[in-house]
Amino acid sequence: MLEVKNISVRFGGLMALNDASFQVGRGTVHALIGPNGAGKTTMFNVISGVQRPDAGRILVGGADITKLPLHRRASCGMARTFQNIRLFSGMNVIENVMCGMHPTLFANPVLSILGIGKGRAEERRCHGRCLEILALVGLADVAYSPVTALSYGHQRRVEIARALASDPALLLLDEPAAGMNPSETRDLARLLVTLRQGGLTLVVVEHDLHFVMKLSDKITVLNFGRVLADGAPLAVRNDPRVIDAYLGSSAASMKESA
Ligand SMILES: Nc1ncnc2c1ncn2[C@@H]1O[C@H](COP(=O)(O)OP(=O)(O)OP(=O)(O)O)[C@@H](O)[C@H]1O
Question: Complex ipTM, two decimals?
Answer without folding.
Answer: 0.95
